[in-house]
Design a protein that fits this description.
Lipocalin, Thrombin, subunit H, 3 domains, 4-stranded antiparallel beta sheet, 40% strand, globular, disordered N terminus
Length: 282
């Protein structure tokens, strides 16, 4: 139920799929919305809510689709799929196991992680550029720095820094799996969550670590003042200074798994496992 004052939120339209939706939508420049579903379909939805087309994959779709410069739509389920803007298949790329993480596109290369424990670099034509193997499944989304270094965490408890040619630059060990994406600060510091939140220098050495009551799956977000925000399974949202000291924390009483969002005014938005959604300001 929507509640409020004179500016109540109103439904523009709704689209019934009939299955759960775990994929985040992405909006194309022409207004088309792309969305995956547990019924294995990728949907292209017009701005008026009508179906433009849908494409059937081999498994449920949990990851957010990505859009290339040429309008190609990329998504993962049992394989990596590249779909033309008209809904026809451009190509598909086989991985040994399912894909649940979002993709990253950098200089036209598609970076994809899989539960088969590999990070794949895929060329725009669907051919493999290289693959990098870890010891366990990868749930985390890879991120790429300005110099082309790829950072990704694995369930083998390591954060990996990988060179643009697919060779290992360094690895950093934690005491638990890493299932969410890292974030990169203006100075190149890499922030990520696991058993703790870690700040790692670009050379792979530890800058600092911050311990919460339980593990962290929420990806750290860096605010305008370089404050680092993240949620924890201990039910708190934390604001951490760039030197690793605590600025403040906000208790919710429920797990915080999702990544917070920050607007231009510094308001922090996040949800909890018990269904509450918060907007906080400093």
């Amino acid at each position: 139920m929507l509640r409020g004052g004179v500016n109540d939120c109103k439904i523009k339209w709704e689209f019934l799929i009939g299955n759960s939706i775990d994929s985040s939508p992405i909006l194309a420049k022409n207004g088309t919305i792309y969305l995956g579903s547990s019924n294995k379909n990728l949907y292209a939805i017009n701005p008026d809510g009508s179906v433009k087309w849908f494409f059937k994959s081999g498994e449920i779709i949990e990851c957010k689709p990505s859009i290339g410069k040429d309008g190609t739509i990329y998504f993962g389920s049992d394989k990596v799929y590249a779909i033309n803007p008209d809904g026809t298949e451009k190509w598909r790329f086989d991985t040994k196991k399912a894909i649940v993480s979002d993709f990253t596109i950098f200089e036209d290369i598609l970076y994809v992680t899989s539960l088969d424990g590999h990070l794949y670099a895929i060329n725009p034509d669907g051919t493999e550029k290289w693959r990098f193997k870890t010891k366990k499944a990868i749930y985390a989304t890879p991120i790429v720095s300005e110099d082309g270094t790829i950072y990704v965490g694995s369930n083998d408890n390591y954060l990996y820094a990988i060179n643009p040619d697919g060779t290992e630059k360094w690895r950093f060990k934690t005491n638990d799996s890493i299932t969410s994406a890292a974030s990169i600060g203006k100075d190149g510091t890499i922030y990520f969550g696991s058993d703790k939140v870690y700040a790692i220098n670009p050379d792979g050495t530890e800058k600092w670590r911050f311990k919460t009551g339980k593990r962290i799956e929420s990806s750290p977000v860096i605010g305008n003042t370089d404050t680092i925000y993240f949620g924890s399974y201990d039910g708190h949202l934390y604001a951490i200074n760039p030197d690793g000291t605590e600025k403040w924390n906000f208790e919710t009483g429920s797990w915080i798994i999702a990544t917070p969002a920050i607007d231009e005014n510094g308001t922090i938005y996040f949800g909890t496992r018990n269904g509450k959604f918060y907007a906080l300001f400093n």
